[in-house]
Write the structure tokens for this entry.
Amino acid sequence: MAGGRAKAEVVVLGAGVVGLTAARLLQEKGHRVLVVAQGLGEASRVPVALVNPLRGRRFTLAPRGEEALEAALRFYSRFVPLHLGVYRPVPEGERERVALRLGGLRHTWEEGGVLLEEAFWLEPRPLLERLAEGLSLLKARVLAWEPPYLVLEGGERVHGEVLVYAGGGQGAHLLGLEGRHIPGLVLTLLDYFPRAISYRVYLAGSVLGGSYLPHQRTPEAPPPTEGEAEWLLRGAEALLGYRPKVASAWRGVRFRLANPSPLGSTVGLPYLFPVAGGFALTGLGSTGFLYAPWLGERLLAALEKRGSVGEL
Ligand SMILES: Cc1cc2nc3c(=O)[nH]c(=O)nc-3n(C[C@H](O)[C@H](O)[C@H](O)COP(=O)(O)OP(=O)(O)OC[C@H]3O[C@@H](n4cnc5c(N)ncnc54)[C@H](O)[C@@H]3O)c2cc1C
């Protein structure tokens, strides 16, 4: 290949949960896939991820949430242990409203709230390692998206018949994708919570997390603040009746797209859409782990619908 050192049928930019999941699903169906990334995940390196389709304090069922949960259970259980059961305390007087929002999610009511039996938490870092095993991975920084090439730092080029952008917030500028970058803080604790609890903040495994800071326009991670840690600990105290002891802190930044793609969505959700040279899978905010397998399956279907990827 002129001017390049690697080529593949599908080249995925990004080795977070989204890129690696898509790459695995495509490779398992016989596609020749190459993943190009600076490292294994950015936001996806969060110490614990909840896979929970019932979102926020309003208990909103995520669009296609039941299907996404099913795909997530099916896919991740092949790679890492899943810790089933997310308990959601429900405020007095809100049971009826919440009951109407549960859709087809398997659940059990308990005295103070509802247990989502098939929602779960997992440890992302072993997951990323396991997903990367057996994939062709090129560790490099991408400086430009010039279909059918990715231009790497140092000037080398990688050729893909289809390019898939899964570079999260850090690489969004390469495609001119604008969005909100939402910092989050996760405290690791000395306590361990085998069953996740989530209301305002969440406790799962040995972490306490939640969203406190407003969004920003750039992906740089701001330093943790005392206000955030205090807000998290107060939230934990409200759930537990005591303040858990903190061992360390991890900062990450989520990415949400500002505008739906001008070229339209491929699956009715704004996270998978056509771009020059292929597709983008990005902007998932706090739901990357929930949607990655479902979106990966949809990407596979979109590629196969076109018969030959060369026709894209
Ligand atoms: C504090 C916090 C808590 C969260 N909790 C949850 C949760 O409980 N459940 C949940 O579902 N989600 C959660 N999320 C969101 C979740 O982490 C993200 O939605 C998900 O990780 C996004 O994955 P990704 O693969 O798109 O991107 P990332 O993990 O950000 O990966 C981006 C990849 O692209 C590569 N890349 C980017 N630019 C370049 C470039 N120029 N050259 C080469 N490589 C590049 C990076 O090296 C990396 O491999 C949380 C996020 C944060 C910050």
In short: The first strand starts at residue 4 and ends at 13. The chain is about 25% helix and 35% strand. The pocket of flavin-adenine dinucleotide is lined by residues 14-19, 37-39, 41-44, 46, 49-50, 141-142, 166-168, 170-171, 184, 186, 209, 252-254, 282, 284, 286-290 (CB under 6 Å).
